């Protein structure tokens, strides 16, 4: 069993979060540390402070020495996949190969409305997510990438420098979607993360993931399964 911390970057300060991650870095029990990718707090008051995920992770990579760092999980709708790939490669270099690359489709209507970011209908959102994950994996691992997707179009695209971890930092996909999320997880991810409603739900979804792996010929034991346990 492996343990991590996840700190909500809401209603707090940079100094407080930094001190928590630095302390966790000294405790061998904790393998990794994570934040979330939101611009507004998810609990009232919603107009309170919330630190941006990726700039925080880059700073934490410099503040720590051992612990792996990541965002659980990055909303694909917020950043173009090619831009996100470059961000991930840079943070993996800053951290000397300690990045965990968390990816999700995105869902927060309040943030999208406030910032004028389009939140597509569910099917389109997951079509974009599928293309985005493929684009990121290719950009991080290949010299050049050309994709002619419906939503992601790349032409001889480069992402340099490459990440320290090869072929790319481990991908964590978060979510409970049986048809789309878990199918993409089976294809690309090294870790699947869930905030489960119950043990029975987790067991059911795990079997769905195993089924997707079987259909594409992937060993499901290659995918670490993790859950969030909240402490107030």
The best one-word shape is: globular
Number of helices: 7
Q: Output mean pLDDT.
A: 96
| Major sheet size, sense and barrel closure | 8 strands, parallel
- Name the poorly predicted regions: none
Structural class: alpha/beta
What is the total tally of β strands? 10
Give helix % range.
25-40%
Gyration radius, rounded: 17 Å
End-to-end Cα distance: 22 Å
Tell me the β content: 15-25%
**Quaternary structure state of the chains depicted:** single chain
Order of helices and strands: EHEHEEHEHHEEEHEHE
Protein model, in words:
There is one protein chain. Strands 1, 2, 3, 4, 5, 8, 9 and 10 form an 8-stranded parallel beta sheet that branches. With 232 residues, the protein is α/β, with parallel strands linked by helices. Helix 3 packs across helix 5 (122-141). The protein has helices spanning 14-25, 53-63, 81-94, 109-115, 122-141, 181-188, 199-216, and strands at 3-6, 30-35, 68-71, 74-75, 99-104, 145-148, 153-157, 171-174, 191-194, 224-227. Strand 6 (145-148) and strand 7 (153-157) form a beta hairpin. The chain starts with a strand and ends in a 5-residue tail after the last strand.
């Amino acid at each position: 069993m492996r343990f991590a911390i996840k700190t909500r970057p809401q209603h707090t300060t940079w100094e407080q979060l930094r001190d928590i991650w630095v302390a966790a870095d000294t405790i061998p029990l904790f393998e990794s540390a994570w934040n979330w990718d939101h611009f507004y707090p998810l609990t009232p008051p919603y107009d309170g402070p919330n630190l941006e995920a990726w700039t925080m992770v880059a700073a934490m990579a410099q503040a720590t020495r051992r612990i792996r760092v990541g965002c659980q999980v990055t909303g694909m709708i917020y950043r173009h996949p090619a831009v996100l790939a470059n961000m991930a490669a840079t943070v993996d270099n800053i951290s000397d190969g300690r990045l965990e690359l968390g990816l999700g489709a995105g869902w927060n209507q309040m943030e999208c409305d406030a910032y004028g970011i389009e939140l597509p209908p569910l099917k389109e959102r997951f079509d974009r997510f599928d293309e985005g994950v493929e684009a990121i994996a290719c950009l991080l691992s290949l010299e050049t990438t050309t994709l002619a997707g419906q939503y992601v179009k790349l032409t001889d695209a480069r992402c340099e420098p490459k990440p320290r971890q090869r072929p790319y930092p481990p991908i964590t996909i978060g979510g409970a979607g049986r048809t789309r999320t878990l199918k993409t997880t089976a294809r690309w991810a090294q870790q699947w993360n869930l905030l489960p409603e119950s043990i029975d739900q987790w067991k059911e979804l795990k079997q769905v993931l195993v089924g997707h792996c079987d259909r594409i010929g992937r060993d499901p034991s290659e995918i670490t399964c993790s859950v969030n346990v909240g402490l107030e």
